[in-house]
Specification:
The complex is a heterodimer of chains A (703) and B (120).
Chain A lengths: L2 H27 L4 H20 L3 H18 L7 H23 L5 H14 L14 H6 L7 E9 L10 H11 L2 E6 L17 E8 L3 H7 L7 E9 L13 H8 L4 H8 L5 H7 L5 H31 L6 H27 L4 H24 L1 E3 L1 H17 L4 E6 L4 E3 H22 L3 H6 L6 E10 L2 E8 L6 H10 L11 H6 L22 H10 L3 E7 L3 E9 L4 E9 L2 E6 L3 E7 L1 H6 L5 E4 L2 E7 H4 L10 E8 L2 E7 L1 E9 L13 E6 L5 E5 L1 H10 L2
Parallel strand pairs in A: 6-8, 13-21, 16-18
Antiparallel strand pairs in A: 1-3, 1-4, 2-3, 5-7, 8-9, 9-11, 10-11, 12-13, 12-19, 14-17, 15-16, 17-18, 20-21
Chain B lengths: L4 E6 L3 E10 L4 H13 L3 E12 L1 H17 L3 E4 L3 H9 L28
Parallel strand pairs in B: 2-3, 3-4
Antiparallel strand pairs in B: 1-2
Helix pairs in contact in B: 1-2
Classes of the chains: A alpha+beta (703), B alpha/beta (120).
Chain lengths: 703, 120
């Protein structure tokens, strides 16, 4: 078996497992919804089927056991219980383990697998179900994978008159047909007699059935298997499930009647000579009965609908069609686009210098426009909705709250907000930390909540929303809120802040991100070891994002992460100090103002500036980076905002906005403080990207 | 099984036939005789099915046959007290339709959908 196929299966299985987890959690909430049970069953079935196909026999046989139980649930023989959901979630983890162990070569935890299987077996009421059920249910299920096309049949079923006395019941057969798929049944009563001529025990009716089913002709024959000798049966395919043009419509009424043998071709052509609706003509001429016409019209309508539906489906399928591309290829594409953006900037620069060549200028403009479109498209391809990450947290919240004896409901909002794939991947761990903290420290136990007059079930809300070129992700709980006094006391004890320091609530809230900080009285398995929030802060800053905390006692805490949409290309501000140029992310820039020598003097040696009656500290970058030469008489201050604080960065000139393609610094320079990367400018020179949070930090720590 | 009951009330301007229980092959023979009697009175025949609990194809045929009789003899025939048991079975049997049969000149077919006689 080729590795590529096995890899494809693993990828698919992971997606299926994610879907399964979501379905299971949904099932727990709505245990009576058979639609969700069906979804769980189908997912298991697909994992089993493709697992066996690609040689993952352990996965297949394991899943088979689970599937057996779900077959019972689906048939209403077993109720959805908490236990079942727990076991199923455990089974999902087992399958994931098996997949991963196949990859890494370490054996899966067979003992745990056995335990889960035993748990499932215990749920099955009697042992008779241990074997897969033979009979009608089996074969169509197995064939359903890949799905057979939906074929429409015309069935004329005329039982022999004595059918009732021999114990037959046409209704049972009709019901079985209905179970196979969308079905139009028309009873033909034209042979019905008045009471005086009626033998009530004979059958005077026959049926025309138009059935669309993917179960195949055999399934139809199976329905009539016990009646084969005592009825007239004709089955014909009238739509094979392949054509998709609804415009083509379906056969004319006359053609249908001829095909059914209700009318001869000559009769039809005779009637067609007259210009009237065919059905009326046929009826008037007394050649056929009204019921026959009705029946034929039903066929016409049914096939039209089926074809229209299929057409609609094909269209949505076409619209939703996608291909699987490895993330590496996308990264390469984005890198190439980045290079192109750089070269384009250079081209534009050259064109500016050679203004005489109007043709060159217009070509350069065209290239610029196309490059911008290409860049937006390339970045867009890597965008993923954050919903997949959100739904992962459902499981986390469920398991954690159960472990801690709390009742918490997770709600999400803005699941379709899109973020760069790499950003989403890097967001996962910080979000897990924050959610864990909210559940462990934030939301109280049901008893505590009731005592405080709050609803028994706590709530945790995850929301994502676009804001300019960033995404705001908010994690809000309605728990106890941050305990300002406890944080202050702890911070003093750990000497993070000096004793007796007066801090605003906002500053105190920020302390929870200090390394090694925890106010939890005891260490639980979830949190309290004091690693976490500082890691969260580092990770978010690594994404060029920021964290904001808000909290109200007993009302809850809300943590907002501001994350840039993408890591590859950012809008930035290009500035110059001496001969060196730097860029800073535009998202953090508030405003630019002038700084004269007189204003510097007014600071009396402290780097403080008065902006609209408010003091703003500033960092002279020329001094910080030890750039030689003299600053111009009038410098410029770029005021940046971070975590609610405004700090100015002093530069010689502000050049303007710039599309920055981010290049990471070489390994030797990675530790340099104050720089987060580099970019290549249009003229081929390198500009360093300022790491504003790091500059803020070092300025704060400076004596 | 609950025994089926047929009662005939001769009213001034109509003959009311009430049926309760299951209308199946077991009793359609007897019911046919009673209905023939009802039609023999020559007045409008009203068949009330309020008490109907179940019906099979023979029962449906009988209801249809009454209509044929009514058309043939020119005696109006009303079907009243239709309930879900009847509607559901009629639906499975594919009886509800937009237009009656050839004999149904006046559009009194009991299976017609637009006459809201059969609730679908």
């Amino acid at each position: 078996m080729s590795d590529a196929f096995a890899q494809a299966f693993k990828d698919e299985a992971r997606e299926l497992l994610a879907d399964l987890e979501e379905a299971l959690l949904e099932m727990e909430e709505n245990p009576d919804d058979l639609g969700i049970v069906g979804r769980v069953f189908r997912t298991m079935h697909t994992i089993k089927g493709s697992g066996a196909m690609f040689g993952f026999d352990d996965v297949a046989s394991f899943t088979h056991n689970v599937e057996t139980v779900y077959d019972l649930v689906r048939n209403g023989e077993l109720a959805v219980s908490k236990e079942l959901v727990n076991l199923s979630l455990a089974a999902r983890d087992c399958i994931l383990d098996m997949l991963e162990s196949a990859e890494s070569g370490t054996p899966a935890d067979l003992q745990r697998n056995d335990e889960v299987i035993r748990g499932f077996r215990a749920l099955v009421p009697e042992q008779e179900d241990a074997e897969p059920k033979p009979g009608r249910q089996g074969p169509p299920e197995e064939q359903a994978d890949p799905p057979a096309p939906t074929v429409t049949y015309r069935i004329r079923f005329r039982p022999e008159p004595e059918i009732f006395t021999s114990g037959g019941n046409p209704l049972t057969l009709l019901r079985e047909l209905q179970e196979l798929g969308p079905c139009n049944i028309v009873a033909n009563t034209c042979e019905m007699r008045p009471l005086d001529a009626l033998d009530p025990e004979l059958c005077y009716m026959y049926w025309d059935v138009i059935l669309s089913t993917s179960a195949g002709r055999n399934a139809i024959d199976d329905v009539f298997i016990f009646m084969a000798d005592s009825c007239e049966l004709s089955v014909a395919v009238i739509d094979d499930g392949t054509g998709v043009e609804p415009e083509a419509g379906y056969k004319k009424l006359g053609e249908i009647l001829v095909e059914r043998g209700d009318l001869t071709k000559q009769q039809m052509q005779h009637l067609l000579g007259k210009q009237k609706k065919f059905g009326e003509l046929a009826l008037e001429a007394g050649m056929v009965d009204a019921a026959t016409i009705t029946s034929a019209l039903v066929e016409q309508q049914h096939v039209k609908e089926i074809r229209q539906e299929r057409h609609a489906q094909t269209q949505t399928q076409e619209a939703a069609s996608s291909i699987r591309v490895s993330a590496d290829k996308l990264d390469l594409l984005v890198n190439l686009v980045g290079e192109l953006v750089t070269v384009q900037a250079r081209l534009s620069l050259v064109a500016q210098e050679l203004k005489r060549h109007t043709e060159l200028v217009s070509v350069a403009e065209e290239v610029e426009r196309l490059t911008n479109d290409l860049r937006d498209n390339a970045l867009d391809i890597r965008m993923l909705p954050i919903g997949a990450t959100f739904s992962k947290f459902k499981r986390l919240v469920r398991d954690l709250s159960a472990e801690l004896g709390k009742e918490i409901e997770l709600t999400t909002e803005g699941a379709d907000t899109e973020l760069d794939k790499t950003v989403i991947e890097k967001l996962n761990d910080p979000l897990v930390h924050i959610i864990r903290n909210s559940i462990d420290h934030g939301v109280e136990t049901p008893e505590q909540r009731l005592a405080k007059g709050k609803p028994r079930v706590g709530s945790l809300h995850l929301a994502a929303v676009h804001s300019g070129d960033s995404v705001l992700i908010t994690i809000r709980d309605d728990g106890a809120g941050l305990n300002v006094d406890a944080i202050r006391a702890k911070a003093m004890e750990r000497k993070i802040i000096p004793a007796g320091a007066e801090l605003s609530d906002r500053e105190i809230w920020q302390l929870i991100f200090a390394p090694g900080f925890s106010t939890a009285a005891k260490v639980t398995s979830v949190s309290g070891r004091g690693v976490g929030m500082d890691v969260v802060k580092q990770a978010i800053e690594g994404l060029r994002g920021s964290i904001d905390v808000k909290s109200e006692p007993d009302r809850g805490t809300s943590i907002t992460l501001k994350i840039p949409l993408t890591l590859a290309i950012i809008e930035s501000l290009l500035v110059q100090i001496g001969k060196d140029r730097f860029v800073m992310p535009l998202a953090m820039v508030d405003e630019c103002i002038l700084l004269t020598e007189k204003e510097i003097e007014q600071g009396h040696g402290r780097d403080i500036l008065l902006v609209r009656e408010k003091l703003v500290p500033y960092v002279p970058l020329r001094k910080m980076f030890r750039i030689e030469g003299k600053a111009p008489a009038i410098q410029q201050v770029v005021i940046c905002q971070l975590e609610g604080k405004r700090v100015g960065l002093v530069v010689d000139w502000v050049i303007g906005e710039h599309q920055t393609v981010i290049k990471s610094l070489g390994r030797m320079y990675q530790q340099v403080e104050g720089m987060s990367g580099a970019t290549i400018l249009g003229d081929g020179s390198v500009a360093l990207i300022l790491d504003i949070p790091a500059i803020f930090k070092s300025a704060e720590e400076a004596p | 099984m609950e025994a089926a009951q047929v009662k005939i009330f001769k009213k001034k301007e109509r003959t009311l036939v009430t049926f309760s229980g299951e209308m199946t092959i077991a009793n359609v023979g007897e019911l046919r005789e009673r209905l023939l009697q009802a039609f023999a009175a020559g007045k409008t025949v009203e068949l009330s099915l309020v008490g109907l609990t179940a019906i099979d194809v023979t029962g449906l045929q009988l209801l249809c046959s009454c209509h044929r009789t009514s058309v043939a003899q020119g005696i109006p025939y009303l079907l009243t007290g239709r309930n879900e048991a009847l509607a559901a079975i009629a639906e499975v049997a594919g009886l509800p339709r937009l237009k009656g049969c050839v004999q149904d000149v006046d559009g009194t077919c009991i299976w017609r959908i637009d006459t809201d006689k059969v609730t679908v």
